[in-house]
Amino acid sequence: MATIVGAITSSHVPAIGGAIAKGRQQEPYWKPFFDGYPPAHAWLARAKPDVAVIFYNDHGLNFFLDKLPTFAVGAAPEYRNADEGWGIPTVRPFAGDPALSWHLIESLVADEFDITMCQEMLVDHACTLPMALLWPGGGAWPVRIVPIAMNHVQHPLPSLKRSFALGRAVGRALDAWESNDRILVIGTGGLSHQLDGERAGFINKPFDLMCMDAMVNEPEKLTRYSTLDIVREAGAQGTELMAWVAARGALTGRVTKVHSSYHIPVSNTATGLMVLENQPLPAARAA
Amino acid sequence: MTGGKRDYGIPGTSIFDGAAAQKGYALNRMCYSFNSAENREAFRKDEDAYCRRYGLGDEQRAAIASRNVLQLIAAGGNIYYLAKFAGILGLDVQDIGAQQTGMTKEAFKAKLIEAGR
Asked: ipTM surpassing 0.85, yes or no?
């Protein structure tokens, strides 16, 4: 059976792409942010994932308001990035894992998640930048990916409760995946930030730190917040927390925190990184 | 609130709901087209003609001409699509944050750094 090695949750602010392209990681503005990532690199070198399942939100690259799925699972052999309009360089393509994609799709629908299936899917900065942060330096990506896009454009957004349940269903599917693959789950976005309105620039450090604490051992606590609660507490785009909660939901074993970092600001955003290790339980493996 | 009709009770914050998405459809569809460099160039060449081609009404065309983000949101714009328009203007999210809050960019950036203390 496949092994879920853990989850990494990371911010995906577009400006990070510009900083990487211009080699600014050691500049005073950027250093505190990029300094959070080497412990994640060290853990990845030990965890050796073969494939990454990535919960993220598309910001108007692949999906538009004409047809906007709440949850969409990629089932492509390859995923490409493309011009998003504001100038960060595109990254090299990612290999997909269609067999795992279809296993997830079948398992999720059987589990009553009526997801959208995508055999073609462009992936935007929310998918590509966390990948570039986790595996810097170019070269071939060391993992295949299965992207799962969550609607974060058009209200009503999926609730944290539903996002966590989706993660749980993904975790059950991964535990039942008959392969020797080591699987990493990634959740991207956040933490508190607001780009639009007179409250633009809103950041809530105490709330973010509470969320990061709850992510380790009490993720259910976060599912009690409604979408509007999160908008109020974490800003209009702080609701990207949904992808963190989904990634945490996919961890079916005993979870320990390996590393976390938190830095304000990158652009208009409070940024966070967490590395959570998953120790599979005998019951989960037998299921 | 600045978009849609319902009051969600969160000060200075618009919720991009069904009403806003209907109202802003043409505007957002045009901004979505700015993913293409060719379309960005066509917009630059003749803004008003490009707006009309995408069916923007008077309020939306005026909002585009004004470069005013709060006005664009009131016209149904969604911030993720509007960001592509801002990109054409060479504005980043701190520029538009400063504009919406009536602050200088320096003051807006200082406010963000203060939030981390």
From this structure: yes
Asked if residue A268 is part of any domain, the answer here is yes
* Of residues A73, A56, A108, the one with CA closest to residue A246: A56
User: Residues 58 to 97 of B: which have CB under 8 A from any A CB?
Assistant: 69-70, 73, 78-84, 86-88, 92-94, 96-97
What CATH number should be reported for the domain holding residue B62?
A: 1.10.700.10
Does the pTM surpass 0.95? The reply is yes
Query: A179-215 pLDDT, tens per residue?
Result: 999 999 999 999 999 999 999 999 999 999 999 999 9
Q: Which of A59, A152, A193, A263 does the annotation list as catalytic?
A: A193
Candidates A125, A152, A155, A259; catalytic one: A125
Nearest by Cα to A261 from A27, A28, A108, A33: A33
The answer to whether A264 contacts B115, with C-beta atoms less than 8 Å apart, is yes
Contact: B13, A87; criterion CB under 8 Å: no
Q: How many structural domains compose chain B?
A: 1
Domain carrying residue A173 = 3-59+123-139+153-286
At A2-55, the pLDDT tens digits run 999 999 999 999 999 999 999 999 999 999 999 999 999 999 999 999 999 999
- Contact between B87 and A85 using a beta-carbon 8 Å cutoff: yes
Q: How far is CA B7 from CA A17, A169, B16, B19, in A?
A: 36, 35, 12, 12
Confidence at A284, pLDDT banded by 50, 70, 90: low
Size of interface A-B (CB pairs under 8 A): 135
